[in-house]
Here is the input.
Amino acid sequence: MQIIKVLKIKILTIIGARPQIIKAAAVSRAVRSRFSDRIEEKILHTGQHYDAGMSQVFFDELELPHPDFNLNAGSGKHGEQTAKMIAGIENVLLSEHFDGVILYGDTNSTLAGAVAASKLHVPVYHIEAGLRSFNMSMPEEINRVVCDQLSTVLFAPTVTAVENLKREGFADSKARFADGRGHSVVNLGDVMYDNSMYFASKAESKSDVMKRLDLQPDKYILATIHRDNNTDVPERLTSIIRALVEISKSKPQYKIVLPLHPRTAKLLPQNVDSRVYEEFNNCRNIICTPPVSFFDIIVLERNAALVLTDSGGVQKEAYFYEKPCVIMRPETEWVEIVNAGAGILADADTQRIIDAVDELLSKSIEYPKVFGDSRASEHILQYILDCRN
Ligand code: UD1
Ligand code: UDP
Here is the structure.
């Protein structure tokens, strides 16, 4: 009898910020359930996010294994923070052999992983490649453009992301790269959609957030704000908070639930006009909370009448759960949501936000399936294995 030896590859997953921990949980789950005989995964946490509610809670809930490496990079100026991460990732990649690194999204942790790995000729697998806002004032856009250039396989989650890359000269290809050089662009779906479908019913049974915050389904609006050009610019943050105050006054039948990112919690008192801030604090139907867990946010998204956000992930999850979404940004990378009529770009403009809420609450919306088949993680891992054969 002939014995076929299955070669196992070793992958380093690099995460650091909240949404990356969540995305990595989907892929890591697929490694453990379907590919454990062919893929060994180690996890590196840069430490970009470190509060328990921004990091540990997701490891616990989403059953992501404890990181094998933690760089404890923490917060800091962009260069300072990214440099610490690059140095730490480089040391790990020099200390043991990896057949590739998996990176997610567009944060400084993503950029650091791409720079460190590509300089050491370790193949870079970029999940959520090809997204573009075409706004180079966003730190994330800089990270995306650089990271995509340094990536070996670019896993684009949407047709638009593939088109963006083609326009930048990448070939749309199913070609295999055995040597880790060159680029390959492929759309196998969105790993966030995997998670949102996988955890929806578990979240409903585990989370007590509706009771805890005294909420009724369809009787509240879920809001999140954390984008730097909203939190750090006083006029913009004031304009957004003024919109929330106005909506809470004109629509008392809705509560507004606002889980606060630590960046926003820190900057609200100093950047919002003092009179608007006082009114905001006095609005009894605006509920501010610390950041909530993934199960809590799923339940909040699924039961909301509408979502108001500047988050990339929350925008998409609203769509997955067929909820209308006001996007408090001048543009979005997730143009499918706006094209479907399920999202309206309102920037940080008080009146546009109010008008968009009115419009979305009063119309019926279709949500075409554009984010894959909720098995993107498995397809991606199979693709990585095929590249190696
Ligand atoms: C980062 C990403 C952004 C992503 C977001 C997800 C970059 C450039 N930005 O933005 O793309 O959408 O994560 O949430 O990588 N802080 C804490 N505790 C924490 C983490 C942060 O207090 O656990 C505070 C610190 O004051 C810190 C600030 O939040 O300076 C900003 O954190 P940082 O990681 O630099 O950027 P985010 O705004 O979180
Ligand atoms: N999220 C969460 N708790 C919160 C707010 C967001 O678990 O209080 C989750 C959300 O469901 C999504 C991810 O965090 O999966 C989005 O992260 P964030 O908004 O911080 O960043 P972005 O997606 O904009 O990069």
Observations:
- Residues 17-19, 48-51, 54, 75, 106-108, 139-140, 226, 228, 261-263, 266 surround uridine-diphosphate-N-acetylglucosamine (ligand 1) (CB under 6 Å).
